[in-house]
Design goal:
This protein has 158 residues and is of the alpha+beta class. It contains four helices and eight strands. A hairpin with a 5-residue loop joins β6 and β7. The two termini are 31 Å apart.
Length: 158
């Protein structure tokens, strides 16, 4: 098993995949929500996230499980999601994979001590009342993840 996978095994409290985030081009969020609804997904949350994120998000759930799809539409040219779309030749696509953790601070401290390259200086407020932090895809020289990782703590333990 690669160095990155071994490192994640040592992160305390990873419970499950919280969501897979997909970047969508400006003006395409509604059409994408309808497309996922045609697969049986149900929209459970919508929010505009300002600050450094600059996105409109829609969260969709299938069935009663904990795993979600998060659609992210950039709100400005400075949005990291807009920059991702530009790097993808103007197409949307995978933005990140988020893992649910029991305690974001404990996971952050363990990952920092283990040498992961963390994008945030500390866990911070996320959408829907969560606490989050992001992990760089190339946190390890051996076994890079290949995609951005988000760690998510839900204060209600959902």
């Amino acid at each position: 098993m690669g160095d990155a996978q071994e490192g994640l095994k040592r992160v305390p409290g990873i419970r499950f995949v919280d969501h897979v985030a997909i970047a969508v081009k400006q003006g395409e969020l509604e059409a994408q929500v309808r497309a996922y609804e045609s697969l049986g997904f149900k929209e459970i949350h919508r929010e505009e996230v300002r600050g450094g994120d600059q996105v409109r998000e829609a969260l969709l759930q299938i069935g009663e499980g904990p795993n979600l799809i998060q659609l992210l539409e950039p709100l400005s040219p400075d949005s990291p999601v807009q920059k991702l779309i530009e790097r993808n030749g103007g197409r949307g696509g995978l933005a990140h994979v988020a893992f649910r953790v029991e305690n974001a601070k404990r996971a952050f401290d363990a990952m920092q001590a283990d040498g992961f390259q963390l994008i945030d200086k500390a866990p911070r407020k996320g959408s829907r009342g969560t606490t989050v932090f992001f992990v760089h895809p190339k946190s390890r020289t051996e076994g890079a993840f290949g995609f951005l990782i988000e760690m998510v703590e839900d204060p209600e333990g959902r």
